[in-house]
Amino acid sequence: MTTEPWGRVDEEGNVFLRTTDGTTDGTTDGTTDGTTVGERQVGSWQAGSPDEALAFYARKYENLRVEIDLLGRRVRGEGGATIEPDEAAASIERLRATVAEANVVGDLGALTTKLDGLVGVLDSRREELAARKVAAKEAARGKREAIVAEGESLSESTSWKATGERYRTLLDEWKAAPRIDRPTEQALWKRFSAARTAFDRRRRVHFAELGSQREDAKAAKERLVTEAESLATSTDWGPTAARFRSLMTEWKAAGRAGRADDEALWERYRAAQDAFFNARNATMAERDVEHRANLATKEAILVDAEALLPVADPKIARVALRGIHDRWEAAGHVPRGDRDRVEGRLRVVDDAVRGAEESQWKRTNPEARARAEETATALRESIAKLEKQLAKAEAADDTRKAQEARDAIAARHEWLAEAEKALADFSN
Fold first, then answer.
1. Do 248 and 334 sit in the same domain of this protein?
2. Which of these, 152, 357, 364, 399, could form a disulfide with 314 (CB 3.0-4.6 Å)?
3. 51-98 tens-digit pLDDT
């Protein structure tokens, strides 16, 4: 008979498994620790030696142990291996039944202990998975609440295109988000849908109003284009240019029509405007040539005018200046940038001649001369009277009256000197 710790083979080739569960199908032995050791037949072996029989049944045990170990790794999630708890529980129970009836040679009690340990691990795993599910549900709810909150914050937006695209993205995110409990999901969806509907309603109203505004803008711009086209051939350069500037201001204030209408109307308006200003610029270019020639003429006239300075004889200067003014007017316009300069030079000559005439008039005015002579005569008579009063005061030894007379005589002599100087000017 051949034996090993967990099994034996008798002389007839029967293979027995030793157990410690108190179950016997054959002989039993007592152990020192009080455990009842039994054995049961697990097979028979006729093809080879008893050692080969024990080795064969030991390999069957090892295969069972490996299967249990693999299940343990999956239950514990080692090396990335996973298994659903319900599947794991079924596998444990299946293996427990297999172990109980296994026709193998080995420590079946150790395998049962391993399976018992996996039950505890599985319980912990169930709790962990339950916690993860709760967390996942909270995260899913948070995701949907965030979508709703953003949707509500966008309901008053006026960035129509960008907001519409964002609502579409949020809707896709809502569809892709994990499901939550039905009542909560329905309540959140109602809020999100209400916000999106409010935005869509405001957008429709806005574009309806915009369409009306565009029609008004189109009508206004058509009127402006019609007027611009009527002005395109005008040769009333100044007022027409000012009106074109006003039309441009009105164009900008009219608002936007549809894109195609805006572009077509603008092409017509610009064509009319360009036709007018091109014609004006061509005329102005011709006029500039003429004005530059006029400038040369007026600068030659200024040489003759400035030759009258300083004015020796106002009458002769006035006659010459009249001729100069006639030539000046006949010369025509000069470039705008030179106008103030040349007219300023002529004005200096005008002022000088006018000043000489006024000075001569003052010197030859008979009324003014008579007034000056009367003033001088009156002063001389006053001085004569005061000299008599001085002599009388000195004779009477009246010092005070004598000094008063002297002061009065001195003052009148100063006045008389001024009057005689004025008379001298009339003589010149």
1. no
2. 357
3. 898 999 999 999 999 999 999 998 888 877 788 888 889 999 999 999
Residue 293 belongs to a domain: no
Q: Are 405 and 424 in contact (CB under 8 A)?
A: no
- pLDDT tens string 177-217: 988 889 999 999 999 999 999 999 999 998 888 788 888 89
Which residue, 68, 102, 128, sits at the end of a domain? Answer: 128
Residue/partner pairs of 280-289 with CB below 8 Å, 24 or more apart: 280/237, 280/240, 280/241, 283/235, 283/237, 284/237, 287/333, 288/335
Mean pLDDT computed over 416-422: 82
Q: Looking at the structure, tell me whether residues 48 and 82 fall in a common domain.
A: yes
Co-location of 238 and 250 in the same domain: yes
For residue 377, what are the domain limits?
366-427
Has residue 339 been placed in a domain?
Answer: yes
Nearest residue to 425 (alpha-carbon basis) of 350, 382, 383, 373? 373
Q: In terms of domains, do 370 and 360 share one?
A: no
Where does a domain end: 82, 111, 128?
A: 128
Other Cβ atoms closer than 10 A to 370: 11
pTM of the model: 0.38
**Both tokens assigned to 72:** 């343990």
Q: CA 170 to CA 193: how far, in whole Å?
A: 11
pLDDT of residue 31: 44
